[in-house]
Design brief:
This protein has about 500 residues and is an alpha+beta fold. The protein has nine helices and 15 strands.
Length: about 500
């Protein structure tokens, strides 16, 4: 029973470990896939935004190169038509000797542009969603006011801005503009980040993309399918193992039964010789008497017929004895097979074979005492004795309620011998039965042959040991098998 529970525990532990390992592997694979997708989308976002801001430098450079003449009064300047072509450009400003900058911040940006030789940013206010870019040139300088909200080419955007969990921002000098809000970015989970400055020195905005993969985004479906698959495979393997153990248990029980029949020959021979001796002697005496009666003059036919009838009755009795012997066909043993055997292993083998019988009777055997007990015995004979003692105990326990059934097997050393005590909580052995318990052909069970305990006692004696029975002080019966200890066994 303990071995069965230990095996069941190993199956459960193995299934849990395998399930967790597979689930972790699936989760890591999913995270790697989401990370790869995130980085791909972030790089596409960076490329698209870089293309947009680079166009601003090109537009300003074109205006500075062409220097379109101021429009006549009442007509629009050519550069003022740019917002119609580029919706993200809100306005275009021009500054020359006749038209100074309307905002001193633009004049400051113009000075920076002259110093650097490229366009320069005016003081920023990114949270407002716009910025200004100035390019100094002669005879006129130009400035663009750009709408960050219209900067994003949504038709080419790699993500759905309404459902994507990726947050995209433009960051510069501690200011931020949210391009795409994304999902929640706080809480437990894996966090992905992407930072890269757009490809325009005049507009050094840092494209920042972040994503937090929370518990809800884990591949729970695949992980659950994996766990169920592992459970199904382990259940099938466990079923196959149970079938294999059941087949092995049946083969072992069959082997023990065959060995028991072989070892019963000596016991049967002794008992049958005793039973056949009396009827055969009576047959001989009656036939001799009938012969004398028939030789008399005149012959005493009536008395001779009676003697022959008695001889026939005794012959029938002898035939019944022989018939019983033929029903238990045996072969002689193979001689002394004694060797060093671990009695604890023998008990465990017997308990393993009889586990279904114990479960059927709601009995949980308790193995107590030494963890190892080396004795000198015939392994097959020892297995047979232990098997018979446990079977007898289980049959005795059937006579008490299930809640009171106890079976304890104790192994220890007593008086220089190894002892196995098999104690049950059954009704015990009646006082009038105890002296005849090991007598051949004596049985208290209906249909019993009466040779099991007798054979066990004979086998124990043949191995230099003994088998005894008694009633326990706490109730029930206790059988004690004692065998010689192996050399070196304390």
């Amino acid at each position: 029973m303990r071995q069965s529970w230990r095996s069941q525990r190993w199956w459960v532990s193995g299934g849990v470990v395998l399930s967790l390992a597979g689930a972790v592997l699936l989760a890591r694979q999913s995270l790697e896939q989401q990370r790869a997708l995130f980085e791909t989308d972030a790089r596409i976002v960076h490329r698209l935004l870089s293309q947009q801001v680079v166009q601003h430098d090109a537009i300003l450079a074109t205006l500075a190169l062409l220097q379109p003449a101021p429009a006549a009064p009442g007509t629009g300047s050519p550069e003022q038509r740019l917002p119609a072509l580029y919706p993200r450009i809100l306005s275009v400003h021009r500054s020359d000797a006749a038209t100074p900058w309307p905002d001193p911040a633009l004049a400051e940006a113009e000075n920076l542009s002259r110093q650097s030789g490229r366009a320069a940013l005016a003081p920023l206010d990114l949270p407002s969603g716009r910025y200004r870019l100035v390019l100094a040139s002669e005879p006129a300088s130009y400035a663009l006011t750009i709408d960050l909200r219209a900067l994003v080419p949504w038709t080419e955007w790699p993500m759905s801005p309404d459902s994507s969990h990726v947050r995209v921002e433009l960051v510069h000098a501690g200011q931020r503009h949210v391009v795409q809000a994304g999902g929640p970015q706080a809480g437990a989970g894996s966090r992905f980040e992407f930072h890269k400055v757009v490809a325009a020195e005049s507009q050094p905005f840092d494209v920042v993309a972040t994503q937090t993969v929370g518990w809800r985004q884990w591949p729970w479906g695949r992980m659950t399918a994996w766990v169920l698959a592992v459970a199904a495979v382990l259940a099938a393997l466990q079923h196959l193992q149970r079938q294999r153990l059941a087949r092995r248990r049946a083969e072992e029980l069959l082997r023990l039964g065959q060995v028991a029949r072989l070892n019963t020959l000596g016991e049967l021979a002794a008992g049958m010789a005793h039973e056949l001796n009396q009827p055969l002697t009576a047959v001989l005496a009656n036939t001799q008497a009938a012969q004398r009666l028939l030789d008399d003059e005149p012959p005493e036919l009536a008395t001779a017929r009676s003697a022959m009838a008695q001889a026939a009755a005794q012959a029938r009795r002898a035939a019944e004895v022989v018939g019983r012997l033929r029903r238990v066909v045996e072969r002689p043993g193979n001689g002394d097979q004694r060797q060093t055997v671990d009695a604890v292993d023998a008990v465990r083998r017997a308990l393993d074979l009889l586990e279904p019988e114990c479960q059927r009777r709601s009995v949980v055997p308790v193995l107590d005492g030494a963890a190892s007990l080396a004795v000198v015995a015939d392994p097959v004979a020892l297995d047979q004795i232990v098997h018979n003692l446990i079977v007898n105990a289980l049959q005795a326990l059937e006579q008490v309620p299930a809640s009171q059934r106890r079976l304890t097997l104790t192994l220890h050393t007593v008086d220089g011998l190894g002892e196995l005590a098999v104690a049950d909580s059954g009704p015990g052995i009646p006082a009038e039965v105890l002296p005849r318990l090991f007598e051949p052909f004596f049985s208290t069970r209906e249909g019993g042959l009466g040779l099991g305990l007798s054979l066990c006692e004979t086998l124990a004696s043949g191995m230099g040991g003994s088998l005894s029975a008694a009633n326990a002080s706490t109730g029930g019966a206790v059988f004690r098998l004692r065998l010689p200890l192996a050399n070196g066994q304390a």
